[in-house]
Amino acid sequence: MDRRLNADFYTFISPVVDLRAYLEEAYATKERVDDFFLVTARDPSATTKAEDRKFDMKKDFAAIANCKPWTANKIFDGDLQATRFLACPQQRTFEEINGIHNIPPNPKLRVQKYALERNEYAKNAQRKSNYLRTLKYDKFEMYEKDLRRSHSTPMHLPCAKDIIIACTVIIPHNRILSSDELRNTRLLTAERKLILRGDSTLLSLRQKILCICDTVVELEDGKELEPVDQNKTHMLLYPSSFVFIHDTFYVDYSLPHSQDISEPIREFMARKKCFDPVTSRDIEGVKMIDLKLRLGQPYVFQHSGTCEHLLIFHDLRLLEKTDVQDLDRYPMVVFEKKGDTRCSACARGYAAFVVEECERLPSPYMLFCDECFREFFFVHAVSEYFGSTSFSIRRVLISCKSANLLIWKRFCLMASRLPSVLACTCRSIVTSSSSHNRYDPRLFRDPVTDIKEMHQPLDENDERNFLFLKAMKSDDTPVFYRDHTVDKLTRVIMNSGRKETARHHVYAALEIIKRRQYKAWRKAETEEEKNKIELDPFVIARKAIANCHPLMKLQGVTRVKLLRGTTYQVPFPIEKAEAEFRAMKMMRDICRQKAAHGETHLKDILANELLAASQNEGLTIQAKQELHKTCEANRAYAHYRS
């Protein structure tokens, strides 16, 4: 595999490292270094002859560094003296040398440079309050390696002879990637990082990698609301897995009915001359210290059929006394990628269902929380809402409370990579991009967005059988929870490309409208008064925008007379799409103007304007009327249109 990847060519990949040989060599080197610099602490007789030992250290240094004796004397007596780095050598106490005035202006030590920069930065009187305010919103993660020092072994106790190595697990990509995606560096995003000891087993590392693919359950048609059978999870249906490191496939047989799924891969590699010979063995009993690997080179962990994770080992060193000595606590998770995917419908609840290939949805893969899934696909707990449509539904099964958060994060990471392009059957919606604005009417027809019409059978003479469909506009959709007017209002209100912020303001305003209308409905005494109150905020928004549509617009027309041009504001008739845009633009400008004066939040102002405009009141209606008055006053320039 090294020859296929050309590992020796890359500088970030180390040569092949035998971890056991590294441990012996590194530990022997550490002992030699300790013997050289800490002889006084090891040999009690040397404490009485400090001057002789100092001379021996100079002599040994000259022999090791291959320099003259006078050079060694100059280094020990001059450059290595602590007083050389003090501005005032006579001040030897900590309190005396801790002040900012005692740091040399041009220090040589990095510690002094950082201390000088920190003191200069802290001269501002507001720095402390800034630090406290920032610390209020800072967060830190309490993983298995606690932030306390109680886990460390006391310094007087011996340290075990072992190594420490870090392993980074990359997020999986369970689909064929395009050429552009293969060049994207975001593919190597770390999913989690672990610390292992040399005595840690490879099986413990495999069990520490939690993936949402192991908890997915395929749901049968008509049984989506029944209790999930835990024996149908992918972890039990596809228990086989392996870890490939260097030239060996370590197969996991710990689960029942596990098989060696690396056999076809090894047969394929044996037929190709570009691969080195590989072997396979049982992962049981294999320790990290027994491995031979390259630091920085990606290896593979495969499970649940085709789910692959890249494993990268790095940061190899000896075990120190400050490290956790308890072997049972390894592997330790020191980092985990966050990001929880919400429901595609409500954007509030956590996704629990993955719906695939449903022609009623705008995407081939959509995520639903439990509540939205029941409301969208079931009426009174009966799956008759969509008739005879066929689609597959998968659910994530959470069976272990302690692993709840970790498994949810794995699910959200996988779900966030699902494609979100628009796709339904060719009978109703096409996936082609709207790159052309002109269609030959002999070859193209308008797309169908009505759900009822989409389900009606086609006649043999229906033009949809032999004509192409036009690309559907971005704001046209058959999904009931999307509204054309609200989507367009979101785009009009959007400022500096912050579409999520604009969508938040619009939907918050609609929520305020619904709450106000519901309160008015509760206060209504008679049934007639209740029937007059509209509770749907989308209907109110559409009515408000329709009431604000101007009938005319003013457009500048320049006329040249006697080499001098005069621009006249000429009234022009306006089309429906432009009238809708101008109505939204007038409402947006009024809301921004009120918000700039600090009256209240934008969502409250927008809610007030929508409610007022739905009753032909408010500043937006006044702006429309003023525009009509100006057009009426300039009707004498109407002949300048041509």
UniProtKB/TrEMBL annotation:
InterPro entries documented for this protein: Ribosomal_uS7_dom (IPR023798), Ribosomal_uS7_dom_sf (IPR036823), snRNA-activating_su3 (IPR022042)
GO biological process, one term: snRNA transcription by RNA polymerase II
SUPFAM superfamilies, A to Z: Ribosomal protein S7
Chain ranges of the Small ribosomal subunit protein uS7 domain: 477-635
UniProt KW keywords: Mitochondrion, Ribonucleoprotein, Ribosomal protein
A single MF term (Gene Ontology): bent DNA binding
Cellular component GO terms held in the UniProt record: ribonucleoprotein complex; ribosome; snRNA-activating protein complex
One Pfam family this sequence matches: Ribosomal_S7
Subunit relationships: Component of the mitochondrial ribosome small subunit (28S) which comprises a 12S rRNA and about 30 distinct proteins.
Matching PANTHER family: SNRNA-ACTIVATING PROTEIN COMPLEX SUBUNIT 3 (PTHR13421:SF22)
Membership in a protein family: Belongs to the universal ribosomal protein uS7 family.
Protein name (database record): Small ribosomal subunit protein uS7m
Organism: Cylicocyclus nassatus
